[in-house]
Write a structure and sequence with these properties.
The chain has helices at 4-8, 18-22, 107-116, 119-144, 147-158, 169-176, 180-192, 208-214, and strands spanning 29-33, 38-40, 48-54, 57-63, 66-73, 77-79, 93-96, 100-106, 163-165, 196-199, 202-205. By secondary structure, the chain is an alpha+beta fold. It is elongated, with a radius of gyration of 20 Å. The protein starts with a helix and ends with a helix.
Amino acid sequence: MLDVSFLSGIDLFKHLPDSCLEAFEKGSEVLNCRAGHLFFQPEQTGRVLFVLETGSVRTFRTYGDRKLTIARLQPPTVFGVIGCFGKGKYHSSAEALEASRVRMIPRDRIQALLECAPQVAHKLVDLMSERCVHFLHKMETLALKGLIPRVATLLLERAEYGVVAGMTHKDMADHLAVHRESITATLGELRRAGIIRIERKTIRILHRERLERATQE
């Protein structure tokens, strides 16, 4: 059964009557998938709206043998929005980062929702615009920053209580669209400078202020 209260917690569906939300139940399917599951790739035509209920998903672009992460999504949220409009061709890929539960709502159900609640169309456009701006900002950052500032920025973004856990050198390389060897060398420079300490499966920030300064270099 579709949890109407869960959907109403997503900004896109807030303040909609239960009758509209309950219409989603008809024809929707739930996918329980493992880490690495690929939901779509560029040039594929969309047929559903994806609702992330549990787990995490990332959208990315592939350049040769490298992947540039566009966004890491946490529940509750939606993705694959572009598949609900026009020709509905995707321009990026989406994959599960861990075991996830994703509800797939058919495109015709979304069209019915837009008739029931036209204001959702504005929210969908706003969401796509916001994610487009996020992607352009990321590309600008990649173009303007050297690798040390980019790595420093990533460490600060992912740190919890001064520790970055569960992120391998390959994960960082994929996120920043660089080679793993470059990440290893950059982390080595930060370690030798006494800014971080590399431990087993974790990176500990020793001097946050210096790391913050490194983002501006």
